[in-house]
Amino acid sequence: MIEVPKSELPGSSGVETNVKKTIKIYVSVNAATSKTSDDSYKTMNSTAAKKFVSQINAYWKAESNGYITAVFGGYEARSLKQSSCGSSHDIYSKVTSVAFGGAFKSYSWIDTNKHLLVLTKEKCNGGQGFGTVGANGGLVFSSYGMGSTLGLPVILHEMGHNLGFRHANASVCPAGLNYDAPQEQISLYYDQTCATEEYSDFLDIMGYTISGKKVTRLSSAQKIQKGWISNFTELVENDTRTTFQLKPLGSSTGSQALRITDPNTGDIYYVEYRIKGGQDSQSIEFGTTNTCVKAGEYQLCQRNTSATTGGVRIIRIVDGAGTTALATAPVSGKAANFRRAHLRSGESFTSHSGDIKFTVNSLSTTAGANITVLVGNPPPMTVTTTALTTSHETLPYGSEQVTVTATLTTSDATVPDGTFTLFDGKTVVSKNPGMGGIAMFSLPVTLAGGTHAFSVKFTPTDTSNVIPSASNTGTVVVSKLSSTTTSTLVAKSIKKNTRYSTYVTVTVENVAAPTGTIYAYNGSKKIGTYKLTSAGKGTVKVTLPKFKKGKHGVYFKYAGNTNITGSSNAKVTLSAR
């Protein structure tokens, strides 16, 4: 990274934000020596350069949400005819003064939106990359070639510097400050309050570049500062409690980040939810490796974000040094001074001032991270109590309508908006917004026979400030109705091997058309099954099977249903001759 001297920026507009622009990228390929035997990269021609710029455009256009479009500006190749690579910075200085007819010398690229990529065919000094920061144009040096393994990731990182971004770091702050600190005490130097490891944010392109891995996204903090993301939520109001559904960074819908301002200190916190998917699908951060490095008196542990659920990150701005992810959470199975830079479900964060608190309630890669944020000292949450009563405890089926009433009371005598949900056991029966804290549920007269365990759950509209509640259980027993079964079959002599028909009627008080199944029996043997439908209004015609010679005791049995008990008629003797 190269800082452009401020004395060299007369009239420069600095780093633009929220501005759509097209940048031109010029590719200068240089052979440090006249030999080809020390070339590490063979194919670095104009065609390859155009493809390279196209790949740069694809990444930064996506990460900038269309604010940056990169186009191919030109290609040149030269031999510096040195005896060896020498200093990368010497090559950089020599080439930038003559490249493309001197178009980039003496900072003449400032405010032109033109960018020069100085590439070497040799992997000079084991590979190096650096670039200027900001000024609406820029210079980049890389001796990593144009390959996708490391060449492209390095250039994407260095182009990030050209676009105004500094490094993405990670910090461990003292436990006494809730693993946080005032803005001015977060630094890259160990003599400050927080130990900060440069490049150590593995979920930001401006952190480490990993060979052979798909590069990660730009963090929400970087994007918000540039005006490249609009679907984030700003929290500045004091004494509030709010619950958010934070979608994973890169989602097409929903809020992708929170920017929380401490009402007393002015410190700003960026909160984002990152998952293993999309541009982050190959990030080495997702896994269980638990790579730890010493950071002051602490151990900064990374590569431990769950690939299944992801994690919630807290990012701060480091003045003059980019961004830093706060390592606030403990590492399982390690001492208390081992910290990781993401929160899991059920974990919380409190700022150094105590004026910002939030808890990760749940994580879902599809629904998002559910987070409750407290700013300042919001009033206590409203506690609700839901009481249930029923109009009946027992009643015969079909006799009357049952009414279930839910009454809400609260700790502060308010009547919050919300929804009352009636359950029968675990089954949802109905929902009701209620009125004045009372919800009445009128159940049909045809409430099924049996025992019903009714309960009501109140779910407030404002779940951030009102606590939901569930009622007691109200039991209602609906007794079955009695039935009577009769038949037109009478005792008589019949011819053997002949089929006879008769009518079977089921009578139930206050039920005009009982339904169910009727069975015919000859003694203890079932000889027929017949359906009693509502169309028959309680009667069904049955045709009996043929009877062998002898006496047969025939009767009919109604099986009943949920609401009606079964019954049988008297046995009738048929004599078959």
Describe the structure.
This protein is mostly beta strands and 577 residues long. It has 4 helices and 39 strands. Strands 7-6-15-14-11-10-8 form a 7-stranded mixed β-sheet, with helices on one face. Strands 22, 24, 25, 27, 29 and 30 form a 6-stranded mixed β-sheet that branches.
Structural class designation: mainly beta
Strand content: 35-45%
Give the number of domains: 4
Q: Low-confidence parts lasting 5 or more residues at pLDDT below 50? A: 4-14
State the end-to-end distance: 113 Å
Shape: elongated
Q: Specify Rg, calculated over alpha carbons.
A: 39 Å
Largest sheet: 7 strands, mixed
Q: What is the residue-mean pLDDT, rounded to a whole number?
A: 92
**How many alpha or pi helices?**
4
Number of strands: 39
Strand order of the largest sheet: 7-6-15-14-11-10-8
- Residues in helix, %: under 10%
Q: Which helices and strands occur, and which strands form pairs?
A:
Blueprint: E1 21-33, H1 46-63, E2 68-82, H2 88-102, E3 114-120, E4 129-131, E5 138-142, H3 151-162, E6 168-172, E7 195-197, H4 220-226, E8 233-235, E9 240-246, E10 257-261, E11 268-274, E12 291-295, E13 298-302, E14 311-318, E15 322-326, E16 329-330, E17 338-340, E18 348-350, E19 356-364, E20 368-375, E21 382-390, E22 394-396, E23 403-410, E24 418-424, E25 427-432, E26 438-442, E27 450-460, E28 466-467, E29 469-470, E30 474-479, E31 483-487, E32 492-494, E33 501-508, E34 516-522, E35 525-532, E36 539-543, E37 550-558, E38 567-568, E39 572-576
Parallel strand pairs: 1-2, 1-3, 3-5, 6-15, 8-10, 13-17, 21-28, 22-30, 32-39
Antiparallel strand pairs: 4-5, 6-7, 9-20, 10-11, 11-14, 12-13, 14-15, 16-17, 18-19, 19-20, 21-23, 23-26, 24-25, 24-27, 27-29, 27-30, 31-33, 33-36, 34-35, 34-37, 37-38, 37-39
Helix pairs in contact: 1-3
